[in-house]
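We emphasize that the prediction below concerns an isolated chain of 157 residues; any contacts that depend on oligomerization or on bound cofactors are therefore not represented. The input was used exactly as deposited, without trimming of termini.
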Amino acid sequence: MRRISRSGPAGVTLVELVVTIAVLGILATALVPIAKFTVKRQKELELRRSLRTMRQAIDQYKKFCDTGVIQKSGVDSECYPPDLETLVDGVEKTGALGQKIKFLRRVPIDPMIKSQDWGLRSFQDEPDSSSWGHENVYDVFTTSSKKALDGTLYKDW
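Result of the prediction step, given as a token string:
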């Protein structure tokens, strides 16, 4: 058996180690903003999905009330639901005792504030109102005051 001998010392030099750490540091500083951007984009997608789901449920409630499938909830309701919980609990179908129509499985969590406390607007409220008139639920919005990636405010979505 022949052994091959090395002429230099085995291992990593200090220069190689410093260069490797510097390259890893540069890569890490480049990846952190990308990771933050990705997380924010995911939250925005979830917010859009939640708003769309609730708005579709409100529209479906309005359609069923206008066509007489369900009864109007109040004199000033304009055939909109009185609150979001009504969409989850369901409403009795006109002429069918015990049959309920449910519009949502649950009220989604607002991904921006991590709560089910959504901003609500009544049909009687001003379009840019930030307070709810408690007559009915015409629209929903997030109460977050932060800006989106496109520069708009989340509450204006």
